[in-house]
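Final report, Chapter 2: Outcomes

The project's central promise was a pipeline that accepts a single protein chain and returns its three-dimensional structure in a standardized token representation, suitable for archiving and comparison. That pipeline is now operational. To close this chapter, we reproduce one record exactly as it appears in the project archive, with the input sequence first and the structure output second.
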Amino acid sequence: MVRVTRASDAAPGPTGSVLVVEFELFGQAFKALNGGPIFHFTEAVSFMVDCEDQAEVNHYWDALIADGGAPSACGWLKDKYGLSWQIVPKRLVALLSDPDKAKASRVMAAMMQMGKIDVAKIEAAAAG
């Protein structure tokens, strides 16, 4: 957390409520604006986490669905606040963009059957 800005009596919403939160994740700065009850999270906005290996996929997946989050399909999930995340192993991206179209297609078909991405299964699909 870098900074929390609270609403004054001139701002919309209750005085003292959180208006803007500035935070940093892995060196990347973010600002989140409290849009109030009329603006809801949708899958139209998500955070993508590039992962080096299965252990990293498992770490982020488990942490983000903990305490009320929910898994979805193809590496997507929602955290306990309803924000969408994509937990993606770098190997998946490489295999999906492989010049061998049949290989990339097998990997896509395997991924479409998954919630959390399983690197060993996408590697097996790539191998045929």
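Archive annotation: The chain is about 30% helix and 25% strand.
This record, like all others produced under the grant, will remain available to the consortium after the project formally closes.
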